[in-house]
Design brief:
Layout (H helix, E strand, L loop, with lengths): L3 H8 L17 E4 L2 E7 L2 E2 L2 E2 L11 H23 L5 E12 L7 H16 L6 E7 L8 E9 L1
Parallel strand pairs: 5-6
Antiparallel strand pairs: 1-2, 2-7, 3-4, 5-7
Helix pairs in contact: 2-3
Length: 154
Amino acid sequence: MTGRIDARLEQLGIALPAAAAPAANYVPFVLTGTQLWVAGQITFWDGKLKYRGKVGRDLPLEDGVAAARVCGLNIIAQAKAALGDLDRVVRVVKLGGFVNALPDFTDHPKVINGASDLIVDVFGDAGRHARFAVGASGLPLDSAVEVDAVIEFS
């Protein structure tokens, strides 16, 4: 029997990627108390990096939004790996978004909306979260976007 969130993913036509292994000396998530902290997720999709370069120079805004959505999908995949059942998510508390961009780029919030919109689409009101969206002069492996999350669970 599938859970409510799995059914919602299916309804949205979303197949989650495999939860990515860490690329350095850290763990992909930490469970503490009733919080799940998901490490920064970049634009990996089933082992391959998508969306490389600086948004606004190498990639148009629309690709930046798509890159943030991939990061959001990776967050959900990590949450499923950590919790086993996405119905255990009580609330997505916070997303933190980094956009690989030049100093004069100012559409960071529009880019990170790719992850935020996905999270709300999947989790409904429980997906409404606090967040930040900032620019970075570079990200790991030249990923266009990186997003992390804090999630409350039962």
